[in-house]
Amino acid sequence: MAVEDAMNQDPQVPPAQDEPARKHRLLPRLTLPGCWGALLLACLSFTPSLLPRGGVLQGLICGISAAIGYGLGVVAAYVWRAFADREARSPARRSWLVLIVGAVVLFGVAFGLGQYWQHQIRLLMGVTDYNVLFTVACPFVAVLVFLLLLLAGRGLRALYHRAADLLGRWIGRRAARVVGWILVAGLAWAAFSGLLLNGFVNASNEAFSLRDTETPEGVHQPTSALRSGGPGSLVPWDSLGREGRAFADGGPSAQEIGAFTHRTAQEPIRAYAGLETSDDTETRAARAVADLERAGGFTRENLLVMTTTGSGWVDPAAVDSFEYLGNGDAATVAIQYSYLPSWMSYLVDQSKARAAGRDLFDAVYDKWSKLPQDRRPRLFVAGESLGSFGGETAFSGEADLRNRTAGTVFAGPPNFNTLFREFSDHRDAGSHEIEPVYREGRTVRFTDDPATGTPPADRPWDGPRVLYLMHPSDPIVWWSPNLALTEPDWIGERPGSDVLEAMVWIPFVTFWQVTADLPFSTGVPDGHGHTYKAAYVDAWKDIMRPEGFTAQDLNELKGIVSPQH
Fold first, then answer.
1. Are 209 and 339 in contact (CB under 8 A)?
2. Which of 8, 69, 166, 228 is packed most tightly, with the most Cβ within 10 A?
3. Which helix (H) or strand (E) covers residue 208, if one does?
């Protein structure tokens, strides 16, 4: 977009020869090659992605794609003219007429196919929501987004010309152009990252920090000494944060567990420390572990170190399943590291998650390793989304996970997870990225549904087990900046069970499609996208290997931890 005038003359419309033309120039002037590029990428933006999209979201993706296509069209025309060694020529009216007719036909076909593909995705996932008004609004949103981005590009171009003119008073013309582009690009990046992005993050942090002072409806301060914030706790109730209070007061009671297992059950222990507990992550972890020890967590048979996601949230299904299958003889410890919701933390709080996962496990392991071997609980680790990223950072690889834990469950791992990428990138020959096999599955395994098995089924899975849960339709797992220019294996290979075969990789377009999926990754039914609930039952059954539970028992438990399952 901003490139077009910097590349001298591109054919523009309308011509500036008469009074009507001068009136039309109040609107953005467009080039024919740019318009064809915009039309092509706008149509391709309707191809399916991982999750169902509403009309407004589709309009946003379409507008962004069109703006990228416009810029690519301008650049392609400039390069072609350079090789042809000719000047730009004004296009004939017939050329614009062909564009208009082509736009109506191609965009209409793409829009119709897009609706069909979205219907197919909704059927795959059991999504029933559909808003006709938002669908109709799609083209209008796309045009608005395209124009805003075009105007932003034109603004940068004008700033470049102004900077080049000023610099040209002191240095040569060519040098002024180069330095001008560098200055404008640097200023734009500084404004985006320093003012817009950081300002947005800081404002969001302030807003969600206020929300963190609230207590969810129905949550009350525990009356049990086995919970943080309860009687005798070393962590004050008010310091736990919104999600910490929900975690401390939540979960099944001994009676509820006993009713399921038909045995005498214990009351589970839950320890937690919120951001207000301490400003330092290491100290916060130490406080949580001290409260865990006070409550008797190190005397239980099963001990779970849980790295939270985003604002300190712990998926109830993950811990509830652990406690039910452990017959209540279980303790869980977690800490908060951010005020932001999960999808925002995923983008900006990676370092905080890393510190939280490492410091919490190290603090637990320091106490645990000093206990007599015959009196140590079985030590498990778990994390979902950014929590899996934080949980991984405490370990150097497969052997470390095997040697220092009794088992691990990581759900929906982000694509940038260090160990996840190591295991996936070095998978055994013949296995696919959506369900890789690492070293014949001797320790680490992957599945989208543990109820159907964890391949390779014909290989032994002895000793401590590490299990990754990842849905083929989970954008958290598959999003990467590399999507813009590189086709990943998971798209080129056989698609997953809840991904359409019609999904293909398109430069730039696929990146924005999957990026737009991120905020809505949990807005789909359980078993799809970034929603892992019922899967935890079979996952913990595989990792903990409890005795006495039938397939019927596990199905009953799935109905308890995921009522809509």
1. yes
2. 228
3. helix 198-211
